[in-house]
Amino acid sequence: MDTSEAWRRVHNSPSGVLGTIDKEHGVHLVPVVYSVVGDSGVLIAVDSKPKRSRRLRRLANIEADPRVTLLVDRYTDDWSRLWWVRLEGRASVRPSVDAAVERAHRERYPQLDGHALGPWIDIAIERVSGWSAS
Amino acid sequence: MDTSEAWRRVHNSPSGVLGTIDKEHGVHLVPVVYSVVGDSGVLIAVDSKPKRSRRLRRLANIEADPRVTLLVDRYTDDWSRLWWVRLEGRASVRPSVDAAVERAHRERYPQLDGHALGPWIDIAIERVSGWSAS
Nearest-CA neighbor of B42 among B70, B6, B62? Predict the structure, then answer.
């Protein structure tokens, strides 16, 4: 799968799995929703729940080691239609993003209506790989 | 979500994402199918393709660091029905498994008909966590 097709599938899919490195426990995985930004950026918003947001493992892990991976795939019982895209990059945590970017993210996910968002995980993708059964 | 409910959902779901640690690149993620074995075991079969099987990153990673995580989730646009289960454990790579276990795995995935299977990733799960929106 070429890079532009991989990015197209990521953009057109609603969710993925984010992997970060937990020095103590190994790999930390969590489902995420995201927006593709520019040519090689991915943004993930954390729901702002004050009691927990600073303690989220994914954020602590990124501060300790910025290397992250996002896997986007579609499972179906028809294995001739399986595919996945793997994005590897370096993440940073930002308290907020440009208003236009947040607005586009909220348009992508109307389910976020009424949720405060932030901090944001900002990933600069460095490696794109993908596979498709057909 | 209690542990027995988490295991029930893992068993009833067809696929997940396996995370292993790649010392050089960070987190390696790949979609997998699996069988639950006994109280706290998960088995993942690698399709036997001689040219590549010994070079698969997931296998090399496990040999270097046995800590793995399997995430099973179901995405839906109705976020009140989201859930995920995270299984963390230690993996080993085995050339084969008991015939009864392989048979059960093949019954679970009839799509494997005609595929030779092995090696197998055998995970002893040590931590189970789960979340459900409803």
Answer: B70
Which tens digits make up the pLDDT trace of B83-109? Answer: 999 999 999 999 999 999 999 999 999
Helix, strand, or coil (residue B11): helix
> Which regions of chain A does DSSP assign to beta strands (E)?
16-22, 26-32, 35-37, 41-47, 67-74, 83-94, 117-132
Across chain A, mean pLDDT equals: 94
Using one digit for the tens of pLDDT, what is the confidence trace for B53-67? Answer: 457 899 999 999 999
Cβ distance of B30 and A86 shorter than 8 Å: yes
Q: Is the Cβ pair A67, B21 closer than 8 Å?
A: no
Question: Which residue of B13, B29, B71, B73 is the best one to mutate when testing the A interface, meaning the one whose CB has the most A CBs within 10 A?
Answer: B29
**Spans of all domains in chain B:** 3-132
| Helix/strand/coil for B19 | strand
Q: Bridge partners of B127?
A: B88
Say which CATH architecture domain B3-132 belongs to: Roll (2.30)
- Put simply, the answer to whether A30 touches B71 (Cβ < 8 Å) is yes
ipTM for the predicted complex comes to 0.95
Residue pair B70/B30 in contact by the 8 Å Cβ criterion: no
Q: Is B14 on the interface with A (CB under 8 A)?
A: yes
Chain B positions in Cβ-Cβ contact with residue A17 (cut-off 8 Å): 17, 29, 71, 73
